[in-house]
């Protein structure tokens, strides 16, 4: 996904959890506002066990990827939930070259891939692929992360008409490395790559079956997708250690079982009216999620019979008596677990959308893109621990438009505006799990939180062999999503604004070499008044984890005889780590990665990759919150929590085609 200009993908809790995404001054965490699709299947998960919009890509094998389309901003009518900042649509290959590859690295990372295509005839083909991956990493104890992927695809037809069927399977498991208190490292309790609770970890399993059909005529084209996805996920994490439970610790287990059924269809009509060329797309999208999600209090990944509830109980509500073996705490109240769970919910989500997009080329130098999307989102929630039931729905009209002027002198200018949204965790919307919502004083959590964006940009190739893109953007969110470290979950918070400038350039002086750069400078602030911010528990307007700068510079070399390779520098600028406050801040990081390849023969190649070439000792992610180590005051210590950037490492891979 880092082929998307300006997108930084990092890890803040190890391979057992979805990646963290940074784009345009947004920390979109595990995918809150960056929508991902694989061959028409949505990846983001609403009302997820761990984070709203959770986007786990571990089921995707790079070798079967045929291409990627991306967008930035809420200007595209075909994109809905979680796409307000950006989106990426991965397309799988129809023909997979017969190949086998194996790799091994200095961090205990080993993998094996095999795949290929059987051509039945000129209209029918089938490919299959399998992958095994193991990683220990620099961690103490080792991650012992293992992943298995299998995929197969049958396709029929050609570019004008045809269909395909694709099946995918994924399984992974390993230890987890959540952020650790910096003071624990400084005091020598753990090493820089150590963890306080080695029983943290995660497991995933995913099955999917998807189909695509397309056909076309002289002035029209029809495409459609259908998919069925079933997944199971478990995360075991200990963020605050002994803050709430001074005896057994604060480890919690989050579980989810999800079935997603859905599809989409789009009809494109092309017309010429005199010298005016116009295309119109009519589309419909439907997605239905059935989710069982729970959270449990655990000790060494074993469920305890009680839960620790933070904060005061509402007036008139007396907490049930705790089990005899439950501890007393100054920061939380022990209550009995219900069926082993602290909270458990059966959630149903349905997202139906209609959209239309018209692109008209009025002259050779003027075109417009006008879109309209209507969202009809409904949800229900049954709490299995309290018995509460709630349901609701919301519609949202989203106009979008762009004006493009040019090209003149191989340069064009565009203006875009549009409305988008992200959905909120329905447990917070309905109040079945209050921590998933915003404080009561701030009002009700919306089911759909709208965002609006404006952008002006320039694209030019006026200088030979140089392509430059510049964009100035602003985006306003009616409700930001903030991570609640006490419960490992996102919650809705105050409205916000991002303003920034993004520059991308590619220069190819010779056919065998390319220089490229992507730079984004952003200013992120909450826009509520001081009194409103106080209702959200915020002392100021600064947005935690929002980077001021994201940048990269790369050199690509190919077709230089048998040699090829790349050198890339990427950087993440400083960002505040205490929500609402400018300080403390993390300085961010920069790292250099190197790839060198050699084609031994037309069928055999060798690749060497070196990551973090200069062994930068920065943090991949930094947070600021209260936790407690043994022997510390019962109220805990508010301090810096870090997940270190992995040290210098190397990896050798050999690939053969047959």
Structural description of this entry:
The protein has about 650 residues and is mostly beta strands. About 0% of the residues lie in helices and about 60% in strands. The protein contains three helices and 39 strands.
Strand content is over 45%
The amount of helix comes to under 10%
Distance separating the two termini: 28 Å
Count helical runs. Answer: 3
Structural class: mainly beta
Low-confidence stretches: none
**How does the overall form come out from the CA principal axes?**
globular
Q: Biggest β-sheet, characterized? A: 22 strands, antiparallel, barrel
Would you count the extended β strands for me? Answer: 39
Overall residue-averaged pLDDT value: 94
Tell me the radius of gyration.
25 Å
């Amino acid at each position: 996904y880092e082929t998307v200009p300006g997108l930084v993908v990092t890890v803040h809790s190890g391979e057992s959890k979805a990646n963290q995404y940074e784009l345009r001054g947004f920390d979109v965490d595990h995918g809150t506002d960056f929508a991902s699709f694989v061959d028409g299947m949505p990846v983001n998960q609403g009302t997820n066990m761990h984070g709203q919009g959770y986007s786990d890509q571990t089921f995707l094998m790079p070798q079967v990827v045929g291409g990627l389309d991306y967008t930035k901003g809420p200007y595209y009518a075909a994109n809905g939930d979680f796409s307000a900042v950006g989106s990426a649509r991965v397309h799988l290959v129809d023909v997979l070259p017969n190949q086998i590859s194996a790799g091994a690295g200095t961090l205990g990372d080993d993998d094996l891939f095999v795949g290929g295509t059987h051509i039945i005839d000129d209209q029918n083909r089938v490919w299959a692929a399998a992958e095994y991956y193991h990683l220990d990493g620099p961690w103490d104890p080792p991650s012992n992360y293992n992943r298995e992927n299998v995929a197969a695809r049958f396709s029929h037809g050609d570019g004008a008409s045809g269909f395909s069927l694709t099946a995918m399977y994924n399984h992974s498991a390993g230890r987890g490395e959540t952020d650790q208190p910096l003071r624990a490292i400084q005091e020598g309790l753990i090493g820089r790559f150590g963890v306080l609770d080695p029983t943290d970890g995660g497991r995933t399993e995913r099955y999917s079956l998807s189909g695509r059909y397309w056909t076309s005529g002289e002035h029209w084209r029809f495409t459609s997708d259908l998919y069925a996805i079933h997944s199971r996920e478990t995360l075991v994490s200990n963020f605050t250690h002994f803050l709430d439970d001074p005896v057994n610790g604060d480890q919690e287990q989050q579980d989810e079982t999800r079935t997603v059924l859905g599809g989409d269809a789009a009809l494109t009509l092309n017309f010429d009216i005199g010298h005016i060329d116009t295309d119109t797309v009519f589309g419909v999208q439907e997605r239905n999620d059935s989710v069982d999600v729970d959270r449990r209090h655990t000790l060494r990944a074993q469920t305890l019979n009680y839960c620790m509830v933070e904060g005061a109980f509402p007036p008139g509500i007396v907490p049930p008596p705790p089990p005899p073996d439950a501890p007393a705490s100054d920061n939380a109240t022990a209550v009995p677990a219900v069926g082993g769970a602290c909270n458990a919910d059966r959630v149903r989500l349905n997202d139906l959308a209609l959209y239309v997009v018209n692109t008209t080329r009025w002259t050779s130098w003027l075109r417009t893109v006008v879109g309209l999307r209507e969202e009809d989102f409904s949800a229900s929630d049954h709490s299995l621990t309290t018995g509460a039931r709630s349901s609701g729905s919301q519609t949202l009209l989203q106009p979008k438009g762009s004006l493009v002027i040019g090209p003149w002198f191989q340069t064009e200018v565009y203006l875009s505006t549009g409305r988008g949204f992200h959905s909120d965790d329905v447990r917070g919307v309905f109040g079945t799990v209050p921590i998933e919502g915003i404080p009561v004083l701030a009002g009700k959590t919306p089911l759909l939180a709208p965002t609006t964006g404006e952008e002006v940009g320039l694209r030019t190739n006026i200088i030979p062999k140089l392509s430059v893109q510049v964009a100035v953007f602003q985006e306003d969110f009616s409700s930001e999503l903030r991570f609640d470290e006490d419960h490992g979950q996102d919650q809705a918070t105050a409205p916000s604004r991002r303003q920034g400038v993004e520059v991308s350039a590619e220069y190819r002086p010779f056919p065998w070499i390319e220089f490229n750069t992507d730079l984004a400078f952003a200013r992120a602030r909450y826009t509520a008044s001081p009194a409103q911010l106080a209702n959200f528990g915020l002392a100021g307007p600064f947005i935690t984890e929002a980077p001021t700068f994201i940048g990269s510079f790369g050199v690509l070399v190919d077709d230089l005889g048998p040699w090829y390779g790349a050198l890339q520098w990427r950087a993440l600028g400083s960002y505040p780590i205490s929500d609402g406050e400018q300080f403390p801040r993390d300085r961010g990081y920069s790292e250099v990665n190197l790839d060198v390849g050699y084609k031994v023969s037309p069928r055999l190649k060798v690749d060497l990759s070196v990551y973090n070439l200069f062994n930068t000792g920065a943090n991949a992610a930094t947070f600021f919150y209260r936790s407690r180590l043994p022997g510390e005051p019962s109220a805990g210590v508010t301090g810096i929590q870090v997940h270190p950037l992995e040290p210098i490492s190397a990896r050798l891979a050999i690939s053969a085609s047959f």
